[in-house]
Design goal:
Blueprint lengths: L14 E2 L5 H20 L12 H4 L4 E2 L9 H8 L4 H4 L2 H4 L2 E2 L11 E3 L5 H8 L2 H12 L4 E4 L3 H6 L20 H15 L11 H7 L4 H4 L6 E2 L12 E4 L2 E4 L5 H12 L1
Parallel strand pairs: 2-3, 4-5, 5-8
Antiparallel strand pairs: 1-6, 7-8
Helix pairs in contact: 1-9
C-alpha cells in the first residue's frame, strides 16, 4: 500500500537567522519581504524539484469529484519546460479518485499538501468527508503529514474517540500569520485577496484554537531567511509529534519530505 495523497511541492524557503538587536532584526525582515516577493512574482522557480520518489508519486490523487485535474499556470510552465513530464503522465494523475471514494482503511498514511487559493481551498478545508477521513487516520495512529493551509483540515477533523480536534493534545506548526499576511500585503495590488483563504482569520489563529495549550503546543519555529535545499535541511522547520508531522510553508518542504519518508519506512 502507499500513502493516500501525493502532491508536488514548490521548493522555496528563506534562511533562518536568530535576531540579535533591533536594527539587524529589521534588516532581516526587509530581506525576508524582498525574497518572498521575488518568489511570489516568479512562480516558475517554484516547480523545479522532485521531492518524493516516483514510487510514492504513484499513490492516488484525490479530487472533489470524478474529473481530470486542471493544471495551474505554474504547472503549465513546469510542463512546458520539461519538468514533471513523467509525473503528469501517470495514470494516477490522469484518473484521480473522487473524495467520495476514499476509504482510509485502504491506505497506510495521509499526506495533506499545501495551497491557498480560496476557491479550491475552502472546498477542501470545509469538506465533512475529508475531515472524517483525516480523523480516521489519526484515530488509527497512521502517519499523517500536513503543511501550510492544510493543517487547518487536521484542526477541523474531530476524533471519534475524544469528540475534539485530532490536534488537541499534540504539538504542531502551520503557515504563520506573519507569512500569510506578508504574502497578501505584497501582492494585493495585482492579486487581490488571493493569498487569504479567509479574511476574518489566519491559518495560525484557527489552528491554535484547536489546541489544548495554544501558546505551548503551537511552534512557530525560527525566523526563516534562506532557502531549504536537499543539502541544507537545517534551514527547514518541521514539528513531529508521534505519527503526526507538520510544516509551515513550501520553504520547509525538503526537510518535511525527508521526515515524512522516514516515517513511512
Amino acid at each position: 500500500m502507499a500513502p493516500c495523497v501525493w502532491s508536488p511541492y514548490r521548493s522555496t524557503h528563506l534562511r533562518q537567522a536568530e535576531p540579535s538587536h533591533t536594527h539587524s532584526t529589521l534588516c532581516r525582515v526587509v530581506l525576508w519581504c524582498f525574497c518572498l516577493l521575488i518568489k511570489l512574482t516568479y512562480p516558475k522557480q517554484l516547480c523545479h524539484r522532485k521531492l518524493l520518489p516516483m514510487s510514492v508519486a504513484k499513490s492516488p490523487f484525490l479530487l472533489p469529484k470524478d474529473s481530470k485535474p486542471k493544471l495551474t499556470q505554474s504547472w503549465q510552465q513546469a510542463k512546458a519546460s520539461g519538468f514533471w513530464q513523467e509525473y503528469l503522465s501517470l495514470p494516477s494523475f490522469q484518473h484521480p479518485v473522487p473524495w467520495s471514494g476514499l476509504d482510509a482503511s485502504q491506505y497506510d498514511a495521509l499526506l495533506l499538501p499545501g495551497g491557498h487559493a480560496k476557491g479550491g481551498m475552502r472546498q477542501y478545508l470545509e469538506s465533512e468527508k475529508l475531515q472524517a477521513v483525516t480523523a480516521q487516520f489519526f484515530d488509527h495512529n497512521k502517519p499523517v503529514a500536513a503543511v501550510c493551509h492544510r493543517v487547518v483540515l487536521a484542526a477541523r477533523s474531530i476524533s471519534s474517540k475524544t469528540g475534539k480536534s485530532v490536534l488537541r493534545g499534540l504539538k504542531t506548526t502551520s503557515l504563520l500569520s506573519v507569512q500569510e499576511k506578508l504574502a497578501w500585503w505584497l501582492t494585493w495590488l495585482w492579486l487581490g485577496n488571493y493569498y487569504r483563504t479567509y479574511l476574518d482569520r489566519t491559518v495560525e489563529s484557527e489552528v491554535k484554537d484547536a489546541l489544548a495549550h495554544p501558546n505551548k503546543d503551537f511552534l512557530p519555529g525560527p525566523m526563516a531567511l534562506g532557502q531549504d535545499t536537499p543539502d541544507n535541511l537545517q534551514s527547514g522547520f518541521t514539528v513531529k509529534n508521534g505519527q503526526y508531522l507538520s510544516a509551515r510553508w513550501p520553504g520547509d518542504v525538503h526537510r518535511f519530505t525527508c521526515d515524512f519518508l522516514a516515517m513511512l519506512q
